Amino acid sequence: MDAAGAVSGMAQRAAAQVVPWKQEPSKKNGVLADIPFIFLFVGFFMVFCVIFIAITSFAPEPTGLLSENCPCEGGLERCICPRPTVEALTVWQMICLANSRITAYLSYPLFLVLCLSMSRNLLAYLQHTVVVECLPFPTSAHHLHFWAGTLVGIFVIWHGIFHLIRWGVQGNLRYLVDTPTGITGWICLVLTPIIVWPMRIQALRKRIGYETRKRMHYASWIWMGALCFHAPQRNIFWIVGSFLVLYWVDWFFGLFVATRMAPSARFVKLESAVMIRLKKPPGFQLKGAGGYCYLNIPWISKLEWHAFSTFKDPVNDDFICFCVAVAGDWTKKLHEQVQEPIYRRIWINGPYPSPFETASETDNIISVASGIGITPALSAIKSLADHRKMHLVWMVRDASLLEFMFDFGIVIDDDAFTIIFYTGKRELVFRRPLPYNVLIFKGRPDLDSLIVSIVKASTNPGENLDMSRYEAIHDHHVEVEAEAATTLEHDFYKEVTRLLSIYSVDELFRAAVHRSHLNSQSISYEGLQALIKDIFIRQFSDDQLKEIFDRADEAKDGVISRKEFDSFMKYLEDNANKHYDQYRKIKRNGKVMGSAVSMTLDSDNRGTDEDTIKIARPDHWRLLYCGGSAPVVAALEKLSDEHDIPLSLESFAW
Questions:
Q1: What pTM did the predictor assign?
Q2: Whole-angstrom Cα distance, residue 49 to residue 26?
């Protein structure tokens, strides 16, 4: 049976909960229906602060600060002069003071958001309490921190500029060095661009490395400390200080309690990533559908910590995995250091909840991933596939990552679509047959039409998922039939080609020599056998391996020298290409499902029309995305807006 036939014959369990997809946008139940409670709370608190400061500043005494006893100017009967640093004797000065005080009070609730959103351990605890129903912090903490920091950066600069204008007009710029308010004020004003701009402005993000930006961001500790002493008469020490203590307690708890050592993590090198697998340290609990951890790899850098999505080992629940893509100096160094599978000690801080936790809020999930963004999707699928439909759309260029995941035995949803778009150039090599509902196509998808088609095919009995526009590059029936056209040399060369996209020829030769345990720079039969066992996907029998070794050992002295190794590589390339012509001919003439595939997930329609219509809403679907592709994010956001499907994004591009 070919792939299309296999998927068409899938068990009738797929679409019992929902009815046909509706293209028109759903009706909103009021303007506030889709706004999380925390945004409303912070917004109302900010409005309250503005009203409070307006009354307490510009109402007559004793309610406000307007006094008849001040040396007012410009014909004013009342002005403000409770203390020198907030003196405003003219209308223009009072306008400047109003701008400074309003932006200050607008920032107070945002200070709480900044500190609370970075209290990861507290949020990880709240994720599994009823508080999560009204606070979005556990799954959108970084998003809130980003926007709260942006607003605070604007408000602080605005606040400082109008103070400087007022003091300059009055001739009182000496306050910058003569008063606690002035000294702490210019410290905060100078530090604000250093803290905010590198994280917020895209041009600076590209020019300044993550570690440098992170160290600059830690200037916020000095910034918050200075802020505590900025206005002692207004009790700001207790307001800001309490927020800062909350963050510090959580930070030290995370460092000394939530950080654990994994003594024997296994590192496997891929083309453009490193896969890390380790046994869960004592006390480590990965709950829910997603999560991330901070990793410290001391033999790369003792001080650097980097965030990566965590996913559960598909075979052993006692193990967890991370996939580290090459994206900067630290990850590049790691990739260069892992020349073959190794075991090393690492430190783990976490786990912390991610936006993929929202997957449990709906019955039907379409998880879209690009590159190593597949990792949180795999965790969500393993956690929820038994009770929800977990469709997967994965765009991947790294052939070794794709091969590793399926050879590793990743869990996919048997009752949902798993569609992979491969954009690499190398031929794929799998150790075992792919699941019957996994389809691999060449190129990039049209996400809008594809996702709408997935929803239709999943919810309408008999509706087909038409993939005829895409070129299939892996067909189960054709691949098996074409095996007859291949030779031992071709199979071995396919493996070597795959490895050469990960390792250099020198690295492969050194790895085999290391396993040979000889005094000379040569490869023994046992060394070649050990190398194949450790890093080859396809395993060869002893007879096959002996044939390969004898062919490479031109001198027949029982070892393979470097010259013989290079000669054998050249022979494999020439010989494999000859035999591969027949393989390509069979594949061209075979039944390529990409030419006219129609896939169906059948429904058993266990509910009545009336029952199913009640839940036939876009909010019973959710889109998830993890990856670093801006065009994909833009396409999914547009699709989410047009069809009212909630979208959760996970990214560590900080």
A1: 0.76
A2: 36
